[in-house]
């Protein structure tokens, strides 16, 4: 996997700096929507934003860094909904693993769908490098990542699970969800728009969590004797 796109080189400390950043974001979106990905260069962004290329580079190392910041801004509203997301997820886990996984998968797919619909080809170029959970953690240092809270939630439903290593299972669940979404964006991005995509991904995750290997007829004795 490619390295994560770096954060802003410089944080805005004054309203003028924030206005410059907003101009860069708006110029980037305008170019993407009206001229397409091929015309999105740092020089052209600076031109449309009405700033010098030197000013742009004070804040961003390259257009990939601008892309990551655009994704963050487009998902900004989700940051104010983190408590709702956490409370809903935990409430589901208290009653139903199936409902929780369905909710969890739906939220992840919806996030990628919003970015793909807004950024189009550009998002297809950079989606592997964008990590929303990293961004959330920087904004909310006390916020647990999924792989940190999911193991205890799985343990709550241990009677119905086929997995025993909950930390490993949580990691694999995240890989299944994110890996499937990213691979689909690479090969057939329109597929994430289909309701069946969400349904089948939920089934895949639950199938893994519930799967209990059949006991060997010879127990744990050596095989091949």
TrEMBL record:
Domain HTH tetR-type: 18-78
Record carries keyword DNA-binding: yes
Recorded GO MF terms: DNA binding
Record feature DNA-binding region, as residue ranges: 41-60
Keyword Zinc-finger annotated: no
Protein name as annotated: TetR family transcriptional regulator
Highest taxon above the source species: Bacteria
Xref: PANTHER family: ACREF/ENVCD OPERON REPRESSOR-RELATED, ACREF_ENVCD OPERON REPRESSOR-RELATED
Entry-linked Pfam families: TetR_N
The entry's keywords: DNA-binding
Species name: Halopseudomonas phragmitis
């Amino acid at each position: 996997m490619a390295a994560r796109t770096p954060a802003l080189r410089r944080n805005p400390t004054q309203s003028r700096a924030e206005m410059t950043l907003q101009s860069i974001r708006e110029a980037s979106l305008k170019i993407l929507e009206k001229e397409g990905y091929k015309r999105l260069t740092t020089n052209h962004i600076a031109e449309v934003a009405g700033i010098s290329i030197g000013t742009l580079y004070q804040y961003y190392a390259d257009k990939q860094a601008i892309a990551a910041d655009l994704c963050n801004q487009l998902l900004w509203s989700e940051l104010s909904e983190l408590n709702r997301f956490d409370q809903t997820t935990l409430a589901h886990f208290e009653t139903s693993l199936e409902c929780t996984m369905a909710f969890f998968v739906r939220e992840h797919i919806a996030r990628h769908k919003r970015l793909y619909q807004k950024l189009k080809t550009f998002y297809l170029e950079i989606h592997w490098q964008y990590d929303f959970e990293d961004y959330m953690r920087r904004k909310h240092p006390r916020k647990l990542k999924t792989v940190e809270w999911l193991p205890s939630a799985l343990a709550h439903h241990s009677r119905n699970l086929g997995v025993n290593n909950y930390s490993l299972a949580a990691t694999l669940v995240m890989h299944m969800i994110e890996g499937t979404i990213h691979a689909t964006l690479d090969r057939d991005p329109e597929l994430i728009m289909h309701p069946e995509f969400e349904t089948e991904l939920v089934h895949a995750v639950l199938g893994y969590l519930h799967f209990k290997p059949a006991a060997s007829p010879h127990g744990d004795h050596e095989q091949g004797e």
